[in-house]
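Sample log: UBP16 hydrolase.
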Amino acid sequence: EVSTEDPETAFCTLANRADLNLEEGSIHHCLYQFTRNEKLTETNKLLCDVCTQRLYGPKKNIKSEKKYVYSNAKKQMLISVAPPILTLHLKRFQQAGFNLRKVNRHIKFPEVIDLAPFCSAKCKNVAEGNTKVLYSLYGVVEHSGTMRSGHYTAYAKMRSMNNHLSDLVLRGQSPPALEAEPVKGQWFHISDTHVQAVSVARVLSSQAYLLFYERLL
């Protein structure tokens, strides 16, 4: 979603990004890099419709592409609506010559994550005055193997049903309160038909490919 209503808050976040722990190899560092401010200059300038209309008038008067105005600009991707369920997909491959190579590096991720530093200042589904948007981990997908072959396993957290989360999904209601603690429950490791209870420490040490978080209410 492109923010054009209030340019003054276009690059403002719900919480101060300066307070983030940007340890390289962490999910916070990944999110920070993904949502960082980017300058569009030189051959990467933005085609500006407003600038073009100011200079040449309405679009119908423009007959040549050369008449479009390209301007220096800033771009930043922020979350505009805090979702009930947050899914983070980690890129697990990189270019190696003409081939793709799997990235096996461990990415640190927490049980509870605050999404506020990555949300726009006018983020929807956030109660007025809240400067935290907290999510609790409930699922992890892990891949073992190479780019050509391998096996997917999952970690899932058994927990009690959250009626407030259902209201948020169905009606888009903002949460009445935020809890800083992760949802209580038991973690299980699932590999095909084999299911085993595991500790949270094992979950957090996994080589995550997909992370699933639910909104804390």
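Observation: The longest strand covers residues 134-145.
Observation: The two ends are 26 Å apart (CA to CA).
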